PsbA protein (Phylica humilis), 18 residues
Amino acid sequence: AHNFPLDLAAVEVPFTNG
């Protein structure tokens, strides 16, 4: 997704995945 702490959907690109 965008900047979520745990790319839930991961439809786009895990920018941070922090």
Observations:
- The two ends are 12 Å apart (CA to CA).
- The CA atoms of residues 1 and 9 lie 6 Å apart.
